Amino acid sequence: MATSSTTSSLKTFLLHGASAALVALALAGCSTTGKDKMTTGSIPTMSKKPVEEMSGSDLAQATLTLGKAYDANPKDRDTGINYANALRMSGRNDQALAVMQQVAIANPNDRGVLAAYGKAQAAAGQLQEALATIDRAQTPDRPDWRLVSAEGAILDQLGRSTEARGKYRDALVLQPNEPSILSNLGMSYVLTGDLKSAESYLRSAVNQPAADSRVRQNLSLVVGLQGRFAEAEQIARQELSAQQANANVAYLRAMLAQQNSWQKLAAGDAKKAVN
To answer: Of the spans 24-33, 42-51, 167-176, 260-269, which averages the highest pLDDT?
Structure first.
């Protein structure tokens, strides 16, 4: 079990995200454009690479280009959503929310816009408002698993883990074995310090054909927090550029150092290497 200090650090990490490649609980699965997943945040008109997997310089350039396109047509649905995604990945949550407010005004009945607006609200800390927005986007007769999973992510951020996990399981009924839902469910257990359950769900997520590298990074985090840093680093380096992998590994080490564990793990790894 994780300590209360670790759980607090994890919650901060999950809500704000220090590494672009990590999915965490960022409302995984709400639809936007491209791959139709909010976690993806892809920018089809600029790059096939999701904003979460861009380097810092690429993200800065994408944000600048999208900003110009948005200024030229602030009512455009796809440009606004993609620009808000890029802003959030740059840590500019309040600006992302302002953008989505304008897009939502121009497209008040668009489910995809409402979903993206709810995500922006949650990222800016307006969790209750985000729940209401996501609820408006949902249709009871044709429930969208992405929105159900998004509700779970917001409930987790509100500390209502039992309700959140119920939402994830409802989403899995609608979309069995969906890796983004399994990943969110696993990270929900991280928030309450149950790392073994978290690892079990994340390994299930990783084993799905549609799993992407960000799901693997969540597994890396959970494995590392259990003291198996060499294994965690190996997972973290899969399918990423050297820059992204090094950033993830550095952040993982920093998190472990917060609980005075990294030094012990590093010493253990060195001892094993000698033996």
So the answer is: 167-176
